[in-house]
Amino acid sequence: MRLVILGGGESGVGTAILGKKKGYEVFVSDFGKIKGNYKEVLIINGIAWEEEKHTEDLILNADVVMKSPGIPDKSPIVKKLIEKGIPVLSEMEFAAPFTDATIIGITGSNGKTTTTMLTHHLLKSAGLNVGLGGNIGKSFAWQVADNKYDSYVLELSSFQLDGILNFKPHIAIITNISPDHLDRYDYKYENYIDAKFRITMNQTEEDYLIYDADDEAITEWFKTHTTKAKLIPFSLTKTFSEGAYIKNNKMEISINHEEFTMDTEHIALEGKHNMKNAMAATSVAKLMQIRKSTIRESLSNFQGVEHRLEKVLKIQNVQYINDSKATNVNATFFALDSMNTPTVWIVGGVDKGNDYNELMSLVREKVKAIICLGVDNKKIIDVFGNVVDIMIEVSTMNDAVKMAQRLSEKGDTVLLSPACASFDLFESYEDRGKQFKQAVKNL
């Protein structure tokens, strides 16, 4: 069996290692450059590879193809594979049949990284032998090749879910759905929503789907679709006999006739959106039979996620916050919503079809100045130019941070929450966040 892998990054190399271990003839092809550390792994394992090209003769003879999530279905080589009827799978679909581990899959437009990390933290603190993977951390396939874990917590992007046929998590979470990546879904929001719900398409009555019952797109989907999985809703406003909710500043969870309560003030994560992430993660912990005392302790000592509302430093009584991971409007909405002081907002980057008007009421209420950090800031300026007194364009992170210091006074917050992808000026949102933190430290 010939396994061809498109993309020589973490998921591609991990899949190559698993494929080789399972007796496939493996070939890795990357249209860009393969990083040195990954090349070494391929060479040590005797796996054939090529970079900066896709040689059709070596690809179109595959029995099965694993495509990295960053490669769109519209790319010419993928189109040719599909025309030939060669199955093109995601890493999850390829790797899952090779493990008996319990799989917890987490998707959503926002909050999925925090929910994934918190869920992993809850299970690991309880002594479970649990792996972390998918869209973050080490490749799932690579971990399956090493046969390490009894359960996995996987962060799943819509792109990873696009490439599944039979994959099914035992416990699935949909944190929320808001317009994102529409360029990959023919600019049709319903296509993107359907992609997210693929997480539950193979679930049976033995499985569970945990979801945000306050989310409009999710509740609309349920009006015309069904899933076999047992439903566990969570909400900030509604109460359930089976599910999770907040009432009188307490998180209350009822699952399989078992109750769990905890004062929200003892939960380490702050902000309404994080209460939802905590409810989702705690619901998993309850399903996995984790003791209540362990859950409480883990929720109170969780450190949060880098580049997600991460407090960097307080300088002259101004708090600097790194929310570089906010790559869409909905994520930035949560960030601005959780600000309690006048805010200098650093925003901009590669816009994926954003509607900034959704932020208008929050900007009027909380933002004193906007610093645009992007190659093309016209849209942001058009929307907010008449709303805030001060609007400045910069082209480097150092300039953005220095300008923010000048514009801020005691008691203010400087918030990097770009609402955009980072590829115009930075390698990635991580690179953008690290540059921000370094610039703050240099003040």
UniProtKB/TrEMBL annotation:
Reactions the enzyme catalyzes: UDP-N-acetyl-alpha-D-muramoyl-L-alanine + D-glutamate + ATP = UDP-N-acetyl-alpha-D-muramoyl-L-alanyl-D-glutamate + ADP + phosphate + H(+)
Key words, A-Z: ATP-binding, Cell cycle, Cell division, Cell shape, Cell wall biogenesis/degradation, Cytoplasm, Ligase, Nucleotide-binding, Peptidoglycan synthesis
Claim: Ligase is one of the keywords in the record: yes
Entry binding sites for ATP: 108-114
Molecular function in Gene Ontology: ATP binding; UDP-N-acetylmuramoylalanine-D-glutamate ligase activity
Pathway it works in: Cell wall biogenesis; peptidoglycan biosynthesis
Residue stretches making up the Mur ligase central domain: 106-284
Transmembrane segments: none
EC number: 6.3.2.9
Localization: Cytoplasm
GO cellular component: cytoplasm
GO biological process, one term: cell division
Pfam families: Mur_ligase_C, Mur_ligase_M, MurD_N
Function comment: Cell wall formation. Catalyzes the addition of glutamate to the nucleotide precursor UDP-N-acetylmuramoyl-L-alanine (UMA).
Family: Belongs to the MurCDEF family.
Official protein name in the record: UDP-N-acetylmuramoylalanine--D-glutamate ligase
Organism whose genome encodes this protein: Flavobacterium yafengii
